[in-house]
Amino acid sequence: MSIETPEELEALRAAGRVVAEAIRAMRADVRVGVSTRELDEVGARVFARYRARSGPQLDYGFPGTTCISVNDEAVHGIPGKRRLRDGDLVKLDVTAELDGFYADACASVPVGNVSAECRRLARASRHALHRGMQAAHAGAAINEIGRAVEATVDSYGYSVCRDLAGHGIGRRIHEAPNVPSFRHPAFGQPLTAGLVITIEPIITAGRGEVRESGDGWTLRTRDGSCAAHFEHTIVITDAAPVVLTA
Known about the structure:
246 residues; alpha+beta; Creatine Amidinohydrolase; three-stranded antiparallel sheet; 32% helix
């Protein structure tokens, strides 16, 4: 969506605050032995406190409040009985709907004694997100976000998952435009002030290809390599973007 009134901006800020609080609460509970369902319940309690609803459930019938993916699971992991182990990398992907407005963010969180390589992968995704946000201003091409993200990921020696992308958001989880994490000739259209998008570098230590896992939701890396994912919902301006989910 493109914001047209101060009221719309404030409504989106409110949704973004719910997302940020849910991720903070879930992150604080990440530890060896906790189940992904228990982490999902932490997020659900934050949602209930603000009378927010799960975007994935509303729009797609997802079988959880949040998406929780571990290690080679890149995105859309279903919360369940799986218990986190020492050395895991867990992705907490949270989308909230509040009063008809959506916000979306993700953080990759190490569990216990994570390998140096896995921590570096997470750092690369977070760094790429910030570089992508720096490129996101009115008048810049969507391509410039992808160029900045991919260049950062390449500098670490990792790969972008090209089948997965950021997107417009606001009244639904997924709206136009797509926001790839790599430079693509089809995305030369300029960003406009007020546009609400997500930037979300989903990257791997391997080749970046993903496959369906068989549960109808979870996408894994095809080569079994670890994946990392950071994301924010932002509003495009003539200068630095407004980050709604910080």
